[in-house]
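User: Can you help me understand a structure? I only have the sequence.
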Amino acid sequence: MSRSRNVAKRLGKTDAASGGSTDAVKGFPSGWTASLDGTDMVFIYNSVEVFKVSTAGAITAKDNVTGYGTP
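Assistant: Let's start by predicting it. Here is the structure, written out as tokens:
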């Protein structure tokens, strides 16, 4: 089983192919959901894919990534 699938299962989110639910992950702040794209974990905000984490650990972001700053 892939790392992202393990994370998804721990969050209570699995894909339909494995017999799981395709509902939004419960416990995320309003507007946020997560799902699987193959074996990659995808994080979605207001229906827009914002970033994903691959099974190899690579992170792909829709916009810039800030390394330093104040949140």
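Now, to help you interpret it: DSSP finds one helix and four strands in the chain. Residues 3-61 form one domain. Let me know which part you'd like to focus on.
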